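Researcher: Can you fold this with guanosine-5'-triphosphate in place?
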Amino acid sequence: MQVRTPLTVITGPLGSGKTTLLRHILDSFPKKIAILMNEFGEIGIDTKIIQGKNVQMADLGGGCVCCSLLGEFEAAVNEIIDSVDPDNIVVETTGVAEPDALVFDIQESLTKVRLDGVVTVIDADAMVKYPSVGHTTRIQIEAADTLLLNKVDLVSESELKAIEDKLRSFNEVASILHTKRCQVDPDLLFGIGRERVQPQPHHVHQLEFESFSTTSPATFERQCFEEFADSLGTDVYRAKGFVRFPEGNYLFNFVAGRWDLEPFQQEGTELVFIGKQVSDRKAEILDRLKSCEQ
Ligand SMILES: Nc1nc2c(ncn2[C@@H]2O[C@H](COP(=O)(O)OP(=O)(O)OP(=O)(O)O)[C@@H](O)[C@H]2O)c(=O)[nH]1
């Protein structure tokens, strides 16, 4: 009988640290890992961040793996097993995905894998800024075997305790690990051997978030771009991508009003903007960005 490949699902709200966790796993876990990514937004930014790390990748394209891509998902899983025979498969879902349907599908229909565990990354800073837990986040918390309470550097001890109590009220069994930049021993995430069975979900998933993207061959003036980033907070919840300044190329990440720039080898400028009614502000945001071109 063929041994089933263990599959781990990484889920969690937009910008909570899922890609940061993947990068950490790839740097620190000495196994042959294959990654499947599902992104929200037209350009696969995360795929490009992970590429080059000597890892086998499959990009599921735009959309939400929870509701529209299950057939494509199964085909990608089978192809990756047949072509590279990985020790572990890791699936990163988009921040807007509700993982219960995916978990059900893996447990019920996928014959070549077994669900090893679900890791949900939670943004402690966002939980303080937006304390009411939305429907999608709640499902992500409930599905978890491991809850990574991430970004602990941005909140106080008492805030952390309150968040932990809230997580516990939604999920009594998951282990809760506090992390900064998802620095966790990968052995704690793999080999879980999940036995909890997911009942078939019956949700109709309505996307709350919209996104748009832009690309540009231009070089941007850094100070102007930083002012542009400071101004994004009211319109955008999440933005990410690559931007070219005179001094080099950078990875730009914006989550809930905070942003950073990290030197990154990726030519050109391509950015994705995600927010609740972000399409209404598209023209204005792109005009402000264009004014920073050199
Ligand atoms: N201060 C702080 N920032 C963090 C921490 N972990 C991640 N970040 C930052 O949070 C931002 C988003 O991280 P990502 O790993 O891209 O988040 P994600 O969950 O993959 O985002 P989506 O795929 O868009 O949902 C980046 O700027 C990270 O550097 C942390 O523990 N502390």
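Model: Folded with guanosine-5'-triphosphate in place. The first strand starts at residue 5 and ends at 11.
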